[in-house]
């Protein structure tokens, strides 16, 4: 058994890699165990492949719609193989970067390939070898969860991982789930030329967002020819390769050539042997942690998707920063006191931070809501990107921003302006008083908050 370790990291995800590398640089003897490709979900099956392919799909969309700007691009042909090759090249580049980062940390960092399984407190077995350390960090991530719809055990279906590796375009993709994955991939495949239907039991796409946010996206999806079957649960799935049918509550049937199941993600803890280590899981299998990432087992910490909470790369990466400082005894931040923006990379993008209107009402938080359609922003009209809406919730007591959503071109970038003000505890008046360059999308943020009576220009 290897007993010369200070830290054992399980999983080379968005928290595990920087934690392992920085702890090694800080003098710790570290082993990092990875059972799959280096870099975890984000690099291999998540952010990188989706956003790279979305760029190709957008290029097709821009070429198809260029006529609106007086440019004739001719018939648009999508070379799916070339788009996939480009995606694979970017993924390989990022994965190689991870490998180099880990190798550069040798000899204090040792990379171990294989599935880790706890066999005792702070001790795992990997490919016949036992590794133990006084500190163990669980960063095992998550994988697609398949909703329990009758028939799914017999009908072939894709998850996001398979869909991102397709080499032939589905004639018609039926997507179960209108969340992040469902929305991003629905538009991606529609723009590549597939027919697409999205099914979700919620009455709106992106059901956690405010209705106005979802509605803005739904309008664009419908216009692009994406069929939305919302508000009815899938009751049964039938068919076989090349012909699938989904029966919905109420009797409607949605048909397609391929089925994509995008109904959330479950943690990779079921085969981790957490019992043997005294690591408690919640009823959905996520590792239970406190604000400082401590699990129920002394010396064992959990970060990233497997620890519950927001399933984002930026959250996992921030977990690494917070836990690194805590382990070195200098931490002030915890996982509970942070602002977590999120962006859905549809077109228009959906950037959100802080409270939604629905959450503010449910919590009884007083607010004033500023809204502005994107079509009122000069820049949006000039570049022919008028879809979307800006929504900012302002606290009437101190004029601080409580939350915001920017649906629109570059909405994922713009929301960070509002997030930065929130992080700084600044008043929304800062947006009003500053001089913004014209014509920019940012002017839309200023114009939006100036729709509130308290910030309006007076005669
Ligand atoms: C299609 C898709 C698109 C996404 N797009 C975005 C996006 O645009 N922005 C964003 O912020 N987030 C996005 N996400 C979410 C993001 O990918 C995850 O939140 C993030 O990767 C979580 O990182 P992590 O470190 O917790 O785990 P992961 O990155 O999943 O890494 C966990 C690692 O642990 C390994 N592992 C698991 N079990 C074991 C074991 N027993 N032994 C050894 N190794 C093990 C796995 O092989 C994996 O490499 C997307 C996800 C998907 C599926
Ligand atoms: N841009 C990003 O940051 C990004 C992109 C992709 C994924 N992610 C992360 O990955 C996670 C997983 O994404 P996801 O889209 O799989 O999950 P999600 O939780 O975002 O959405 C799942 C959707 O499936 C629906 N659903 C549940 N059961 C269903 C059923 N039986 N039939 C039809 N629909 C059903 C839900 O109503 C929900 O709308 C996200 O929560 C997010 O944290 C992030």
Automatic annotation (TrEMBL):
Disulfide bridges in this chain: 42-47
Classification via InterPro entries: FAD/NAD-bd_sf (IPR036188), FAD/NAD-binding_dom (IPR023753), FAD/NAD-linked_Rdtase_dimer_sf (IPR016156), Pyr_nuc-diS_OxRdtase (IPR001100), Pyr_nucl-diS_OxRdtase_dimer (IPR004099)
Domain of life: Bacteria
Residue numbers binding FAD: 51
A GO molecular function held by the record: flavin adenine dinucleotide binding
Free-text comment on the cofactor: Binds 1 FAD per subunit.
Keywords: FAD, Flavoprotein, NAD, Nucleotide-binding, Oxidoreductase
SUPFAM superfamilies the UniProt entry points to: FAD/NAD(P)-binding domain (SSF51905), FAD/NAD-linked reductases, dimerisation (C-terminal) domain (SSF55424)
Pfam families noted in UniProt: Pyr_redox_2 (PF07992), Pyr_redox_dim (PF02852)
Domain FAD/NAD(P)-binding: 6-318
Catalytic residues (positions): 438
Cofactor(s) listed in the protein's UniProt record: FAD
Annotated residues for binding of NAD(+): 177-184, 264, 305
Residue ranges constituting the Pyridine nucleotide-disulphide oxidoreductase dimerisation domain according to the UniProt record: 340-448
Family the UniProt entry places it in: Belongs to the class-I pyridine nucleotide-disulfide oxidoreductase family.
Alphabetical list of PANTHER family matching this protein: MERCURIC REDUCTASE
Descriptive protein name: Pyridine nucleotide-disulphide oxidoreductase dimerisation region
Native species: Anaeromyxobacter dehalogenans (strain ATCC BAA-258 / DSM 21875 / 2CP-1)
Species classification: Bacteria, Pseudomonadati, Myxococcota, Myxococcia, Myxococcales
